Amino acid sequence: MISSKITGTGTFIPSLKKANNDFLDFDFLNNDGSKFEATNTVIIEKFKGITGIEERRYAKQTYNTSDLAFFAAEKAIEDAKVNPEELDYIIFAHNFGDVKPGAIQGDTLPSLATRVKAKLQIANPNCVAYDVLFGCPGWIEGVIQAQAFIKAGIAKKCLVIGAETLSRVVDKHDRDSMIYSDGAGACIVEQTSEKDSGILSHASQTFAKEEANYLFFGGSYNPQNDRDVRYIKMHGRKIYEFAITHVPKAMKLALDKSGLQIDDVKKVFIHQANEKMDEAIIKRFYRLFKTPIPEGVMPMSIHKLGNSSVATVPTLLDLVLKGQIENQEVKKGDVVILASVGAGMNINAIVYKF
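Predicted structure:
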């Protein structure tokens, strides 16, 4: 039976560190433009206690999202030892395109996937390159699409990328701006005839009633700023409640489809959006099976890297596979779950066996 597996991973973590204390002199405002009663010191302490974020990475001004993606793609291709000319698809998940510093709009012409193909100097016209807009779960959805192409017999090797420069679409007067970061992660998905390994099952969902507007583009909280310039905005409490309610159910749906048991799961790689939220998701997931949470089952990178949207899961996976997160490893035969939630509101999960 034709299936697919991840044969190589790569990531690009920008070099510019921005610590929480770097926000001490920011002029944070409420959404009505009024000032907070609390000092920035208190705001930042509460922020760290909820999100777990201590610092995040920003891209150099000379790099765009497609550049970060190219760097991660090169590493994934090298790790998988594949010839780029043999790639059937390049699937690039992002949300805002290339955003140059100081620009007021994203650049998606040509597509970012096409730009990466050009940077990789792939001449093969049968290597199809396209972008995916699926919120933070975009990279996982790209892997699911690669699996579908392979199972359908129309692809054997795919490059799937998730990259973003969120630091360029945030409102500096919005305290939520401290959440976001820049980064890129990539993987090669290849056809395999190995039984009982690779991608075993998945689940994808879109909730588009009132949930559709939990994440949106809106104006600055500073009424003196240009109202035509839009920034990433979110209803944080609603997203938190949505995620802890629906993500565990989607993860269970994917696991049930695989035919495996909860005790078979060794790691859960979940979108790095908020430490408290991820902890609540894991708690509710294991509660669905009336099973205690295994120690160390959920690797985390948000403390040092922040939330880079589509890049968080592939980056986290690569770091663990390369032994770069303390006390975390994945061994041959281990079953893991990859899961994410984000704008749409979209949710997805993959059950994978190494």
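Summary: The chain has eight helices and 13 strands.
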